[in-house]
Structures are given as C-alpha cells and as structure tokens.
Amino acid sequence: MTLVQTQFRPAGTHRVHGTVAETMGTAGPQVWEDMTVEVALSVMAAARTGHLVVCDDDGLSTGLVTRARLTAVRDSSGYTDRICLRDVADVIAPLTSSLTARAEAEHAMRHRRLGALPVVDEQGNALGVLALSR
Question: What does DSSP say about strands 25-26 and 30-32: parallel, antiparallel, or unpaired?
Fold first, then answer.
C-alpha cells in the first residue's frame, strides 16, 4: 500500500516533508451528524466519492464514513429510514493532524484497517483526507 497524493498546493506553500500534510487529499463533501444514511449515500453518489467527512453542530469534524459502511447499515435487518450518521456506531473515526508523521499515520491506518483518515487542524476543522491506495 502506498499513500495517494491528490491535493494541489499554491506556489510558495510551505511543505513539511514526511508529514500527512504533503500527501492528504482534499476533504471532499462535509455533512452533519443528523443526515440520514439514505441522504448521505445520495450525496456520495452525486459527488462521486467513497467517503464523507462528518461534522458536529459546531462544524467540527467528528470522523469519516464510507460508502461500504453506509451500504452495510442500509442492508442490515435493523435498518430504518430514520437512522442518522450519528447512529452509525463507527462513524466517529480517528482523526489526525496535518503535522503527524506520514509513517505513523500509515501504520495506524493499517493497524485499524482504515482506508481513509480525516485530517484536521488544531481547532478540529477538516483540512483533507489521507487515503491508502491498494
């Protein structure tokens, strides 16, 4: 597995070598915890993405949810159309700082079997997403 670099940076932007900052992709769509699973899947389809950054009422990132996870929830026997992202047990994913060492983040992702990891600033605002390629 290798890290995927998809974010473009303006000329003159300081790059910190060996950190998550140089390899993270854009955050993509950000949604609120009270969004339903069906609506979230529709947003993913429209945005042509496999994940959404989930935010709380203050707009701070609380995690990331994937299409695979939402599809599994929707296909489960206990599913109702009222299930919100906050009701999905593992929506609160680990977050990482853009200053985290790339090797450390990659190790954590492999250990936890995560395909993507939200990258946040000191205040908890989403900056991007770190993804592993297969």
Answer: unpaired
Per-residue pLDDT reduced to its tens digit, 66-88 = 888 899 999 999 999 999 998 88
pLDDT of 31-40, one tens digit each?
Answer: 999 999 999 9
Q: Are 62 and 30 in contact (CB under 8 A)?
A: no
CA dist 28 → 82, 128, 129 (Å): 24, 7, 8
Could you tell me the end-to-end alpha-carbon distance of the chain, in angstroms, rounded to an integer?
A: 5
User: Is the full-model pTM beyond 0.85?
Assistant: no
Count of helices and strands (H, E) across the chain: 3, 8
| Chain centre to alpha carbon of residue 88 | 14
Tokens 């854009």 correspond to 26
- Return d(Cα 47, Cα 57) in angstroms, integer: 22
